[in-house]
Design brief:
Shape: globular
EC number: 6.3.4.4
Strand content: 15-25%
Catalytic activity: IMP + L-aspartate + GTP = N(6)-(1,2-dicarboxyethyl)-AMP + GDP + phosphate + 2 H(+)
Bound molecules: 6-O-phosphoryl inosine monophosphate, magnesium ion
Number of helices: 12
Subunit structure: Homodimer.
Strand order of the largest sheet: 9-7-5-2-10-1-11-15-19-20
Pfam family, one: Adenylsucc_synt
Radius of gyration: 21 Å
Function: Plays an important role in the de novo pathway of purine nucleotide biosynthesis. Catalyzes the first committed step in the biosynthesis of AMP from IMP.
Helix content: 25-40%
Length: 427
């Protein structure tokens, strides 16, 4: 009765959506446990592209339950749009379940996200401006409004009133802005509530029951390990816990119920937003990978910063989440290069280190120590056996296994669902 967590092992955009969608074929339930509409998960099925922000990547299968767990922050407007847009493309979304305990992103969170970033100037985080950080701030401050409150209009109105009074004080006196009015917010949120009502439930009970019945449950992480609030490159992080432990809190399941943790590793590294990035390529090679890999934010359209694969990071991610195996993605994007580099250590003040530093000033002084690999020609995405891959592809994957001490279970060879090589069964 496997429960499997899929975690990003870099700075997000590792291809978690593609891997989750691929594994979802065998799962009964797919659960998002943290983050919110800051996520952008691309899934390509039969050449049709779907970009998901709040909906779990299992939603594309009609017979699965897709759960938005308590740890997610939900923007009802984004969610309703996403549901309608999928339905207009013929996707049945009746398998969706939303935790009544999940917190809501409110219009003032989105405005605060913008104002806070503006006021930080050069020290800005480079957030997605979706209101995610401010929504988690209110959750921790115990003034948040939850999805379940949408079902009790009087309670919702009360909480909104209290919050608006506070937020408007900040908008007017601190930022010199106009106050926000209550009625339009109330109206649009209660309208969204009508659409969301049938999906809202106690999701933790549902997930635990599914595991007890022997069903297969897949937990889909958003963002990545190095965007984790505790373990990432703070303060250039998101406000939730993408690491595997986040799944327990964000879905309401005990750690003893989890069987496997799959770390998703992109064959190179990317980062959107600010903060240090040791293997960053600011040259033509980086630009080429960006173009080949369409490395532009799904959520914000920003060009992603690109760098070589950094196994110091992946190794640390593996420890933090207790990875049991890896899924390596976008091997196809790296085809056609003469030489590829992979970092396996850093040089800091003349010393070689293999641990990931907690201090950002130390990290920004770290020079990657690279192993060079010969490149490979275009990969046939239909390849179904390791032996059929070019020997240089296999050498690259073997190095990932050697440094991390983990087996590569899945290799993504193209954007489509079917362009995936399974080396070890996950479920
Ligand atoms: P997926 O799930 C990559 C980054 C933002 C910014 C920082 C904080 O597609 O991998 P936030 O809006 O969360 O407060 O921004 O986190 N970020 C992501 N980067 N992929 C994501 O999601 C991200 N979600 C947030 O760029 O640096
Ligand atoms: Mg993404």
């Amino acid at each position: 009765m496997p429960a499997v967590i899929v975690v990003g092992s870099q700075w997000g955009d590792e291809g978690k959506g593609k891997i989750t969608d691929y594994l979802a074929l065998q799962a009964d339930v797919v659960v998002r446990y943290q983050g919110g509409p800051n996520a952008g998960h691309t899934v390509v099925v039969d050449g049709q592209e779907f970009q998901l922000h709040l909906l779990p990547s299992g939603i594309l299968y009609p017979d699965k339950l897709s759960v938005i767990g308590n740890g997610v922050v939900v923007d009802p407007e984004v969610l309703v749009d996403e549901i309608h847009s999928l339905e207009s493309r013929g996707i049945d979304t009746r398998g969706l379940r939303i935790s009544a305990r999940a917190h809501l992103i409110m219009p003032y969170h989105k405005l605060l996200d913008v104002l806070q970033e503006e006021s930080m100037g050069a020290r800005k985080i480079g957030t997605t401006l979706k209101g995610v950080g401010p929504a988690y701030m209110d959750k921790a401050a115990r003034v948040g409004i939850r999805v379940g409150d949408l079902l009790e209009p009087d309670v919702f109105r009360d909480k909104l009133e209290v919050n608006l009074k506070d937020k408007n004080r900040i908008f007017q006196h601190f930022y010199g802005r106009e106050p926000m009015s209550l009625e339009p917010i109330l109206e649009s949120y209660l309208a969204a509530a009508q659409v969301l009502r049938p999906y809202i439930t106690e999701t933790s009970v549902l997930i635990n029951d599914a595991i007890s019945r022997g069903q297969k449950v897949l937990f889909e992480g958003a963002q990545g390990t190095f965007l984790d609030l505790d373990h990432g490159t703070y303060p250039y992080v998101t406000s939730s816990h993408p690491v595997a432990g986040g799944a327990c809190i964000g879905a309401g399941v005990g750690p003893t119920r989890i069987d496997k943790v799959i770390g998703v590793v992109k064959a190179y590294t990317s980062r959107v937003g600010d903060g240090p990035f040791p293997t960053e390529l600011k040259d033509d090679t980086g630009a080429l990978i960006r173009e080949k890999g369409h490395e532009y934010g799904v959520t914000t359209g920003r060009p992603r910063r690109i760098g070589w694969l950094d196994l110091v990071m992946v190794k640390y991610a593996a420890v933090l989440s207790g990875f049991t195996g890896l899924a390596v993605t976008r091997m196809d994007v790296l085809s056609g290069f003469d030489t590829l580099k992979v970092a396996y250590a850093y040089r800091y003040r003349g010393q070689e280190i293999t641990s990931f530093p907690s201090s950002l000033s130390v990290l920004s002084q770290c020079e990657p120590v690279y192993r060079e690999f010969p490149g490979w020609p275009e990969i046939d995405p239909a390849c179904r056996r390791l032996e059929d891959l070019h020997p240089n592809v296999r050498r690259y994957l073997e190095f990932v296994e050697e440094v991390t001490g983990l087996k590569v279970a899945l290799v993504s060879l193209g954007r489509n669902r079917k362009d995936t090589l399974t080396l070890e069964n996950v479920f």
